[in-house]
Amino acid sequence: MTGTENQAEGRLIAGRYRLERRIGGGAMGVVWLAKDELLDRTVALKHLLLTAGLSAEEAEHARKRSSREARIAARLQHRHAITVFDVADDDGMPVLVMEYLPSQSLAEVLTARGPLPPEEVARIGAHAASALAEAHAAGIVHRDVKPGNILLGEDGTAKITDFGISRATDDGTLTGSGAFAGTPAFLSPEAARGERPTAASDVFSLGATLYAIVEGRFPYGDSDNQMALLYSAAAGRVNPPQQAGPLTAVLDRMMRVDPEERPTMAEVATELEKLASPTPEERRRSRALVWAGAGAVVLVAAVVTTLLLVNNGSGGQNASPPASSAQQPAPSSQQQAPPPTTGRTTSSSSSAPPSSTSHPSTSAATTTDPVQFMRDYYAAMPGGISAGWAKLSPAMQGQVGYPYYQRYWSEMSSFQVVSGPQLVGANTVESTLDFVQRGQHFRERHRVTLIESDGRLLVNSDSSSNA
Description:
By secondary structure, the protein is of the alpha+beta class. The protein has 16 helices and 15 strands. It folds into three domains: 3-99, Phosphorylase Kinase, domain 1 (2-Layer Sandwich), CATH 3.30.200.20; 103-172 and 180-276, Transferase(Phosphotransferase), domain 1 (Orthogonal Bundle), CATH 1.10.510; 288-466, no CATH class. The protein has a six-stranded antiparallel β-sheet, covered by helices on one side. A hairpin with a 3-residue loop joins strand 1 (12-13) and strand 2 (17-25). Helix 6 (199-215) runs antiparallel to helix 8 and helix 11 packs across helix 15 (394-400). It is elongated, with a radius of gyration of 25 Å. The relative contact order is 0.09.
């Protein structure tokens, strides 16, 4: 603790708030634990920090921004948002007086515990989404949703905080010329490109936050290079989740490149609440899926394989690549099938998934050579979605779901296997895939694991990395 901080301890602000100790801080301010001596309660005080060397005009700009933050935050009253009680004056500097929640941020929880189980992440996400939905209804966009801004209380309650760079739709922007607000690892593509953030941008950032705490890695890759992250964010280049389990589909919709295809925050809150409180039948089905394969990690990895093997089949060297997952099935008979209109509607699959034996490919159904199987698999697409589905293990089929699988592949406009397939381990085949999905170009290395069932090889898991 610095000498300045020591001197600040015990100081009285606005005649009633006694500073006790520093408990946090960010780019714009320091947070203190304090005692409200008038009401005899513990509060948190956020004190604005001015960057050294600011001109008088810049310092005044920062003060206005802090006051604006207070006005915006005070408009939001929700059980899953940190409440702003008061705005005090400290020698001309506004100080936010906020609810104190004994807690850890999700960033701290992730560091201490590692990735959290999907059901717990769904519960945390439902809490945050419900508060953000109310903020959006009030015309407030947070603009910096990230693990560090979601607090997890001792009783498991999650609350979102720090509307420091929020924007009310009827308020002028004070972020400064040429500056963007937000953390690159969790920015939506449009915000990373410098476009005006909207409520849909918050949906993406919450999806990226939940992705990080269930996967234990950033959606744009683990890099300390902020510019590289910003570049990936602008391109909407999200690595497929592999541990998200039942969260996979909703995360996919939340992190769509096109903001119009994302659900509203209210829809997200409803869906996450359902995932956080599954029925006994849903729990039994989930456990059955986990034990049907080689464990939860393998099952989730199988999701990616499903997606990356089915559209890989338009002819070995010119197959059809994976497309984004979705609830709503898309046409599968054309190489460039039109994507579903929006990810906001939960479809009830107009076409039932074929059984695993209804459309066997003659070559792939009989060969026990993993490399030949993969060649045949890629060659079956893009028109053979039913045949591709039949080449997935039961565990993968159960985890992915046919509508998700069908949508994923139908959105690919081009696909090419640029190297491989080649055997790299027991029943493990590696290929480098080059594809275009919703106008975005990707090149990835995929390692696929196969299992044998009744004399047939089936796709059971997949891991991917940038090539």
